[in-house]
Amino acid sequence: MPPTADLIFANRAYLDHNTPPGGGPPPPAGTGGLLVAVSPTIARDGSTTWIGAGRGIYDREWTDVDGREMLELPGGGTLAHRRLYFDDPTWEGHYAATANGFLWPIMHLVRAPLPRVTDYFPEPVLPARGDWDAFQEVNATFAEAVVDAGRGESCWVHDYQLGLVPARVRERGYQGRIGFFLHTPFPTIAIAREFLDNAGLKRFTAWLNGILGADLVGLQTPADVGRFRNASVELGLAERDGEALRVKGRRVTVDAFPVGIDVDATIQEGAAGELPGIVRHAGDWQRPLVVGLERADYTKGVPERLRAIAHLYREGHSFSYVGIASPTRQGVPAYDRYQAKIESLAAEAREAAPPGALFINTAQALPFSQVLGLLAAADVVCTSSLSDGMNLVPLQAVAVQSARPAGERGVVLTGQDAGVASAFAGFENEGLVPLDPLDHEGFVAVLRDAVEGRFGSISDRLVEAVRAGDATGWGERYLAALDAAYAAR
Q1: Residue 2: is the preceding peptide bond cis (ω within 30°)?
Q2: Contact, 415 vs 110, CB < 8 A?
Q3: Which domains does the chain have, with CATH numbers?
Q4: Distance between terminal CA atoms of the chain?
Q5: Strand pairing of 380-382 and 359-363?
Q6: d(C-alpha 140, C-alpha 417), whole Å
Q7: N or C: which end of the chain has fewer CB within 10 A?
Q8: Taking a C-beta distance cutoff of 8 angstroms, is the pair 170, 213 a contact?
Q9: pLDDT tens sequence for the chain (489 residues)
Q10: What is the helix (H) or strand (E) element at residue 472, kind and residue range?
Q11: What angle do CA 114, 191, 123 make, to 5 degrees?
Q12: Residue 434, Ramachandran bin (φ over 0: left; ψ between -120 and 50: alpha; else beta)
């Protein structure tokens, strides 16, 4: 029987209640990368507890006074769930100002000083004292929930928003295994320093010190591991201990665990997928079909992609493009400016498109069945992240395209600084091609070759590699490594 998690900590709940009890069935679980990855480690007998913030409109009406409830899991079984409630100012200081205004842009400074080499990527904004206090308060409340849970031999903390939790949990005398996994990339400290004054570096150091309270720190790629170790030593928080780190006499294991997907479930859902209405009702359109799907985040390199598409249209190439981005963090100035940039570039590409070439670029949330339907129909799936933790879209595309005959499958393009490019290096001639979105001429050349069919299509070997690194195996490897790290601490 595969190992399961005892306590799972995530910034958000497993699902949000946005309808009142009796107003219909509870909503389905989300489809974000964290939830997709973690779901196979949830025990179905109610022995796993998920602890997340209660941000749904009707959450309090579904839970008891302590925020607890039992959730029905897809496919049967139950999940013990606890929601932690915060007032809006505290949540804004924690999530909008500190986690997303400060930490999120820092996390993606992997290879280049992105605020200087693009005209839209924002510099990290030092959180005001009150916002940093709110971040600490939220993290402390999550840590206190370990004590309140009163059970479990392990707690597994997820992502940058809860970076202070591992150390806080340890300070509270928790004797079980403490794991942390970072779903984003980890930055190059020398590049991050370019955007951090003394106060900013102090905040970042405190955040990193919180993570080092874990027995096991998991990251997406070996490159992330190297950058994490370097930063921990350079900032005076740890000493090297072989491949591990030593923090105040305690051994902290740091290793790479590339996140995967549930391949069989993706294939099954993809078989019932359909194209979105805006494509189905567009009339006749030309192939090849280039598809871009992601959240509308400034880390995804959409402006660079639109510039490359417009370039090829002006060269005389004819192909259809469907780009759909799920809206995110609306009302945040950096995202509003980014959306304006995308709309301007999309208008230029649309004007350059030849007759018969369908061109769609829109911000909307699609049902997952339509996401998979588009990925299955694509001749070219073009993801262009400037940097990314893993990026599951290429893996989902490989899974659903495996249902097509080998010679009729498409090709997936991915930003070279996305985790998927590292985790699946060596498949450049078998359907997964890395590109540098910051190199316009290089981007154009790769996209040109893709639409002209010059790359090898998705191979059976790539499909099997994606299957071998699926979400179930990822969870099993991480939890086994957590046991080993705890024993060696």
Answers
A1: no
A2: no
A3: 1-260+469-489 (3.40.50.2000), 263-468 (3.40.50.2000)
A4: 26
A5: unpaired
A6: 33
A7: N
A8: yes
A9: 567 889 999 999 999 998 898 877 767 676 677 888 888 889 999 999 999 999 999 999 999 999 999 999 988 899 999 999 999 999 999 999 999 999 999 999 999 999 999 999 999 999 999 999 999 999 999 999 987 776 568 999 999 999 999 999 999 999 899 999 999 999 999 999 999 999 999 999 999 999 999 999 999 999 999 999 999 999 999 999 999 999 999 999 999 999 999 999 999 999 988 999 999 988 889 999 999 999 999 999 999 999 999 999 999 999 999 999 988 876 678 888 899 999 999 999 999 999 999 999 999 989 999 999 999 999 999 999 999 999 999 999 999 999 999 989 999 999 999 999 999 999 999 999 999 999 999 999 999 999 999 999 999 999 999 999 998 899 999 999 999 999 988
A10: helix 471-488
A11: 45
A12: beta
Say which residues have a Cβ less than 8 Å from residue 367's Cβ, sequence separation at least 6.
Answer: none
**Token output for 49:** 């507890």
Q: How far is CA 41 from the centre of its chain?
A: 18
Tokens of 440: 């316009």
Write out the two tokens for 421.
């490019």
Query: Backbone phi, then psi, for 193, in 5-degree steps?
Result: -60, -30
